[in-house]
Amino acid sequence: MKLYYKAGACSMASHLALEESGLIYAIEAVDLVSKKTESGIDFQSINPKGYIPALVLDDGAVLTEGVAILLRIAALAPDKELAPAMGSINYMSLVEWLVFIATELHKPAGMQFNPAMPADGKTALKTILTRRLDYAEKTLGTGPFLMGKSLSVADFYLFTVFSWLGRLGIDTGAWPHLIAHFERIKARPATQAVFLAEGLA
Ligand SMILES: N[C@@H](CCC(=O)N[C@@H](CS)C(=O)NCC(=O)O)C(=O)O
């Protein structure tokens, strides 16, 4: 398997899942401006949508969209229990978190990095994001993980989006449970390995 990624971007959630899964994988960085990969390939020939993450599976099939990639990685490493049994109510709760993070956290956060986004737009997105993070703070509680006692792929996704807040000038002080969750995931050896591999350590 090969993950196409950009250091510290949303693809880091997939990278964390791969590292935690114990599966064999490679990574290749993508320049999202030129759409060239590290080895000089036109990234749009791999993912015509032009964005990361993209995961090339061992049979050559290409999977895109972070949520799909995370669930696939969890399914490929059942012994690691990074997702509950498919179809169970707990599995649906995991999907609920993943969709919430993708649409209610990732997008309003990620769009603020767009240099074309006007100041008013950024302020409106910050208001939405703050409200959603208030919800996540209350629902996570002392967790320790989004799914309660079990670590899941949703934790890697929340960790990744939360890591952007400082760069967006968002004060995280109102969310002590989210901070504790962030520190918990950051302390994991797999996270440290991913930071090193992405040049973030
Ligand atoms: N719907 C996609 C969105 C992924 C996404 O927003 N990727 C960003 C980086 S975090 C990207 O590659 N942006 C460059 C672009 O859209 O050209 C997913 O959930 O995986």
Task: List its salient traits.
binds glutathione, Glutathione S-transferase Yfyf (Class Pi), Chain A, domain 2, alpha+beta
State the CATH architecture of the largest domain.
Answer: Up-down Bundle
Number of helical segments with 4 or more residues: 7
Q: How many beta-strand runs?
A: 5
What's the overall average pLDDT, rounded? 97
Order of strands in the sheet with the most strands? 3-2-1-4-5
What separation lies between the terminal Cα atoms?
24 Å
How many domains? The number is: 2
CATH topology label of the largest domain:
Glutathione S-transferase Yfyf (Class Pi), Chain A, domain 2
Write down the overall geometry: globular
What is the CATH class designation of the largest domain?
Mainly Alpha
Order of helices and strands: EHEEEEHHHHHH
Give the biggest beta sheet. 5 strands, mixed
Strand content of the residues, in percent? 5-15%
- Name the structural class: alpha+beta
Q: List the uncertain runs.
A: none
The hetero molecules present are: glutathione
- CA gyration radius, whole angstroms: 16 Å
Polypeptide structure, described:
With 201 residues, this protein is an alpha+beta fold. It has two domains: 2-80 and 190-197, Glutaredoxin, CATH 3.40.30; 89-188, Glutathione S-transferase Yfyf (Class Pi), Chain A, domain 2. It contains seven helices and five strands, in the order βαββββαααααα. A five-stranded mixed β-sheet has the order 3-2-1-4-5, covered by helices on one side. Helix 1 (11-21) links the parallel strand 1 and strand 2. Helix 1 (11-21) packs antiparallel against helix 5 (153-162), helix 3 runs antiparallel to helix 4 (119-140) and helix 3 (89-110) packs parallel to helix 5 (153-162). The longest helix has 22 residues, at 89-110. The structure holds glutathione. The site of glutathione (GSH) has 11 residues, from helix 3. Glutathione (GSH) binds at residues 9-10, 32, 50-53, 65-66, 102, 110.
